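Ops channel
N.P.: pipeline sanity check, posting one input/output pair.
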């Protein structure tokens, strides 16, 4: 069989595939690589993201000629190694580049642990997409108000990722109604008024509560005989934060509800009774186990706090139960209009500050800063006040997030190959036919580039380049993970899919959305190693004390 020999012309495509595919060991075999290509391999081992840590090369004469340089500059601390037989290395140099040390093994173990943490965060992100998609649909730029959403007492508003508004509302309810119970004659409402409470109202609320659970998909039925409970929860589980907020027995996060339950039982009030699962600690003396999700779901049936909070959220008896568990349409439209106005004010200020009129088509940066400022303000937690203050200084500066502007400060080093994408666009060498974001990771960012010249062009898309959404989509912005060089024939249009990181974990994934290339870039190589590190960096900035 003929031997396959790797040459300089093969290396870029091989390295791109290896870095995108998560390859840990690259066996090149017989190679006719130049000094430049060998240095590129070492540079990739030292700084590129991903898993590649070991290279095997044979029959490459320039390895031996570069022995001193390789031995002195090789990235040992990263756990990298090179196996290079028949390349002219001395025995000492050969052994040194194999890097079989305890320090190297420790580095590889740490990196494997970080990849595991990153994989866990990715699974967490994927698990939240349903709720984040709902949030994006309610808050994105649109000409007309979205469909009515559920009131804040509904389990749908307590799903992880969008429950901050509901938690804040419950805190406000408890503050205005300390120790509230269904025996109280009134309940204080958010706008300051008091609503009379009687037995008929309470009974109607319980029916609406049951209908609300049924709409969510959670059914409460008689428990099997001998199970220790009178009720059992079936179907779709209630969100854990909802259970923790309104569960009763022995749960610290709903102290008012437990007090209310005790008060009702002392008074002999007619509430729906149940028996939670037997507690083994009662006889063994061990520390009591926290209530299970099933027990908490049943305890909610005795929660006065939930009934009172339903009134606080605007639920009123007298109409068909499920149909009435919707927000008032006029109130919903007023809230949407106010939010829209506030979001537009923030994005307009950011565009005025960061979008230059002379920028090439497809380059814009203001929306990224507007979105990141929004996330720093906590989304729905008080950010309207920040916007309505008309303080344009409220916009977060790019360097607060670790971002750099390519036209400010120290210039970026020149590209190794090809025309920098920004420069090629600014000089009219190329134009965007489309830029589309879809999720994150491999193939998540699609560029369609047209060569506007009469010659072949190589265009470099740099690691750390940032792409933003074109308006308020409340989706993840994208950060290019590695360097790419795209060859475009004269007058042709080439489509290229890139590997991009998600920048903001708390938002829905990009979903076929048009995007802009920004003037910003991020160049912390340590952070760019893994998706999890990128999320940890930016989330730490979004949640930093203001």
């Amino acid at each position: 069989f003929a031997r396959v020999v790797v040459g300089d012309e093969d290396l870029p495509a091989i390295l791109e595939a290896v870095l995108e595919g998560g390859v840990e060991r690259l066996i090149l075999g017989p190679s006719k690589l130049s000094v430049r290509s060998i240095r590129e391999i070492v540079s990739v081992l030292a700084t590129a993201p991903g898993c590649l840590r070991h290279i095997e090369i044979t029959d490459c004469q320039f390895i031996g000629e570069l022995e001193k340089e390789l031995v002195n500059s090789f990235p040992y601390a990263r756990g990298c190694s090179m196996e290079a037989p028949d390349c002219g290395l001395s025995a000492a140099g050969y052994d040194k580049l194999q890097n079989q040390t305890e320090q190297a093994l420790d580095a590889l173990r740490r990196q494997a642990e970080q990849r595991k943490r990153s994989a866990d965060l990715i699974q967490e992100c994927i698990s939240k997409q349903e709720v984040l998609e709902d949030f994006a649909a309610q808050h994105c730029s649109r000409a007309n108000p979205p469909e009515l959403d559920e009131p804040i007492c509904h389990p749908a508003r307590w799903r992880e990722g969008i429950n901050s508004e509901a938690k804040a509302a419950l805190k406000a309810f408890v503050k205005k109604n300390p120790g509230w119970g269904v025996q109280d004659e009134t309940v204080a409402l958010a706008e300051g008024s008091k609503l009379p409470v009687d037995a008929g109202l309470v009974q109607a609320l319980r029916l609406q509560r049951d209908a609300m659970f049924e709409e969510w998909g959670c059914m409460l039925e008689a428990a099997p005989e001998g199970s220790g409970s009178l009720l059992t929860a079936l179907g779709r589980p209630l969100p854990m934060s909802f259970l923790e907020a309104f569960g009763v027995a022995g749960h610290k996060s709903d102290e008012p509800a437990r007090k209310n339950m005790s008060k009702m039982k002392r008074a002999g009030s007619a509430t729906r009774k149940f028996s939670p699962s037997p507690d083994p600690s009662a006889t063994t003396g061990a520390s009591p186990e926290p209530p299970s999700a099933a027990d908490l779901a049943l305890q909610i049936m005795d929660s006065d706090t939930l009934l009172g909070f339903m009134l606080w959220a605007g639920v009123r008896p007298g109409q068909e139960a499920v149909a009435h568990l919707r927000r008032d349409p006029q109130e919903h439209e007023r809230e949407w209009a106010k939010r829209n106005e506030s979001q537009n004010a923030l994005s307009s200020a950011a565009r005025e500050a960061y979008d230059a009129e002379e920028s090439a088509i497809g380059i814009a940066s203001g929306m990224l800063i507007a979105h990141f400022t929004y996330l720093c303000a906590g989304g729905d937690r008080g950010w309207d006040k920040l916007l309505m203050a008309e303080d344009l200084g409220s916009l977060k500066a790019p360097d607060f997030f670790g971002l750099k502007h390519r036209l400010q400060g120290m210039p970026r080093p020149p590209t190794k190959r090809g025309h920098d994408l920004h420069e090629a666009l600014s000089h009219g060498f190329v134009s965007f036919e489309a830029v589309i974001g879809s999720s994150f990771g491999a193939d998540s960012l699609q560029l369609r580039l047209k060569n506007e010249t009469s010659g072949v062009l190589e265009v470099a898309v740099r690691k750390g380049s940032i792409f933003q959404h074109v308006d308020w989509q409340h989706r993840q912005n994208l950060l290019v993970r590695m360097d790419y060089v795209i060859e475009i024939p004269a007058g042709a249009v080439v489509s290229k899919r890139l590997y991009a990181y998600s920048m903001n974990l708390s938002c829905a994934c990009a979903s076929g959305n048009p995007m802009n290339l920004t003037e910003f870039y991020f160049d912390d190589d340590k952070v760019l190693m893994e998706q999890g590190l990128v999320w940890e960096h930016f989330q730490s900035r979004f949640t930093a004390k203001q």
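N.P.: looks fine end to end. Residues 249-284, 319-324, 380-393 have pLDDT under 50 and may be disordered.
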